[in-house]
Write a structure and sequence with these properties.
Layout (H helix, E strand, L loop, with lengths): L3 E6 L3 H15 L3 E6 L2 H13 L3 E8 L7 H11 L4 E6 L4 H10 L4 E4 L4 H20 L1
Parallel strand pairs: 1-2, 1-3, 3-4, 4-5
Length: 137
């Protein structure tokens, strides 16, 4: 099976570094972990991964970012890449934004900051298991 990527999007570098470290430490080198500090940068990463033939398993995105909010970004991702699992990670999203992402981005999970490392890893493993089961079925 080809290697999958996980993309983390947040305008705070320490958050991105923490996410990347937790994923890498818990899931070994099973995934390519990419980070982006904005939705624009995230689109560049997505395009590069697609060009390189690397499938994106999951995108973990903050909600409150300059420019495009996380729910809007995840909706656009879902429109182009419906197979990518989407996770909204934030301490500031209002219920309307979460509902918007659930209804229009097929939001897989919602995590609040500060998140629990075990919960993050479980979400990724569940997404992987669901993808694997879909491919078998």
């Amino acid at each position: 099976m080809k290697r999958k990527a996980i993309l983390c999007v947040d305008d705070e570098k320490p958050i991105l570094e923490s996410l990347k470290e937790q994923i890498t430490n818990n899931l070994d080198s099973q995934y390519l972990v990419e980070i982006a500090e904005s939705s624009d940068e995230a689109w560049e990463v997505i395009e590069e991964l697609v060009e390189d033939g690397i499938g994106i398993l999951i995108i973990v995105s903050d909600w409150l970012m300059p420019g495009m909010k996380g729910d809007e970004f995840l909706i656009k991702v879902h429109e182009q890449y419906p197979q990518i699992y989407t996770v909204l990670l934030t301490g500031q999203a209002d219920e309307k934004a979460v509902l918007n992402a659930k209804e229009n981005a097929n939001l897989f999970k919602y995590l609040t900051k500060p998140w629990k490392e075990e919960q993050l890893i479980d979400i990724i493993k569940t997404a992987y298991d669901e993808t694997s089961n879909t491919m078998r079925g």
